[in-house]
Amino acid sequence: MHAREMISTHPHVRGNTNDALIRCIEECYDCAQTCTTCADACLGEAKVSDLVQCIRLNMDCADVCAATGAVATRRSGSNEQVIRAMLEACGTACRLCAEECERHAQMHDHCRICAEECRSCEESCQKALQSMRH
To answer: Global pTM?
Structure first.
């Protein structure tokens, strides 16, 4: 991913990047992809009816992560309050998705991997939030 390289070239950033936020942007997009894949894998399982909540949380988390990554990437103007709100929402979505995937992790490797990625993204959101506090 070229997030750091691109953001550092933005005229409003002038090379002064927030590394924790950039790492979070990358994690958000990774998590969105992982959750999308997990939802699709859940749909392929024999007992898909047991995974309805997992699928729903995977899709919600993927959408929230993608939106958070997009909002946090934009550097024109100042919308730190919105970015902080998105990071908080993303952390919550990741936590809830991880908790649900962990319930299925022993039976489904895709849920185990997804839970790990959601926990990693949740942690990145928290670190990015801390980096934005003045």
So the answer is: 0.90
pLDDT in tens, the chain (134 residues): 677 666 666 666 666 667 899 899 999 999 999 999 999 999 999 999 999 999 999 999 999 999 999 999 886 566 889 999 999 999 999 999 999 999 999 999 999 999 999 999 999 999 999 998 75
Helices and strands, counts by H and E, the chain: 5, 0
Q: Using only C-alpha atoms, what is the Rg of the chain?
A: 16
Dist CA 35 CA 21 (whole Å): 20
Residues 83 and 129: their CA atoms lie apart, in Å, by 9
Task: Tell me the C-alpha distance between 27 and 84, whole Å.
Answer: 16
Q: What is the DSSP string of 11-71?
A: TTTTT---HHHHHHHHHHHHHHHHHHHHHHHHHTSTTGGGGHHHHHHHHHHHHHHHHHHHH
Cα 56 from chain centre: 15
The single residue listed with the structure tokens 């928290």 is 126
